[in-house]
Specification:
By secondary structure, the protein is α+β, with helices and mostly antiparallel strands. The chain contains eleven helices and 13 strands. The structure holds alpha-D-galactopyranose. Alpha-D-galactopyranose (GLA) binds next to helix 5.
Amino acid sequence: MRGTASALFRATFGVAPRAAASAPGRVNLIGEHTDYNGGPVLPVALAARTTVAVGPAEAGVLEVVSTRDGRLERVDYKEGRPAGWGAYVAGVMRELLAAGAAPPGGGARVALASDLPAGAGLGSSAALTVASAKALSLLARAALAPRQIAGVAFRAERDHVGVRCGIMDQMIAALAQPQHALFLECGSIATRQIPLRGRWLLVDTGARHHLADGALNRRRVECEAAVARLQLELPELAWLASWPASWLPRLKRALPEPLRSRALHVVGETARTRFGAQLLARGHLTRFGTLLFESHESCRRLYECSAPELDLVVAAARRGGALGARLTGAGWGGAVLVLLGKEEEGRGKNEARVVREIRRAFAAAYGREPSITVVKPAGGVRRESVR
Ligand code: GLA
């Protein structure tokens, strides 16, 4: 799939691209809906990537084509708010212009290929914006550091597409190292690479969400309302995630529902994620797995961002003997991450039991099979050859 962005570029525009870059999707091990609340996250980059090949165009003209539909689109990125995935590339162009790192004349031809499903909670939009930002900055001969690429991609999605996401997806797509999880404190943007241990499965339920439709934005509004009320108790409070975990009774008194539940999730998830990062670093996978189950329960009950398909897979994984499982990404559909147990009874036994139980339960409820893959932690954004 990776070579096809260049092939598509040639087929569409009749010339070779000048530069290409790719960026990975991600799974988040723990720390859901904490990033935009100034809390920690612990994502891992996936082997599945989005590749973007680019070349020059007339000044001010942005032409985009994707293997998804093969249609060539001329995107008005200066005036309008384009629809579809072209909006993401348009946002990247505007941000690169603002940063003085856009191709000459602000024109480009862009071809895109991806082996990441969209709307599955796997960070496909950040893979697209990060890969685009890298490829277009290469075309401009601008040397942007990975954190700057992440910033361009983040602002493109938040300010131009209008999804009020946090910084997690763009940071992991830009900074990931193979075989590592990225511990990221989103309040300070401090990072630490932690070797990924254990064997992990990704179960894509096939249930899809559309974040721009508003569920994520609604939660953000609720979190902001919670901060505003909590600031009456603690004026210094900058982020919801900074509320002291030892002050939960006060938080409960100060907030009405549903703000109380949302805040309890964020404060609890923040503590779980920091503890989880330590457990992972020390290889305490059994206790880490327990945190994953707790995190899912908190997402389901308090943040109300789960879906029946996700709950069913988590329950089946638990019955099958997994150490932990939880929804990953925004939720409301998408994928479940499963931490497998040790193979005490011989290699493959635990995995086989967990997979069998998930397939059986899912088929009984929905009459189809979810896609189950082994997580192979990959590296972040990189230049690709245009050949
Ligand atoms: C989406 C957003 C991320 C993050 C997750 C929830 O994936 O893009 O920034 O908020 O939801 O943890």
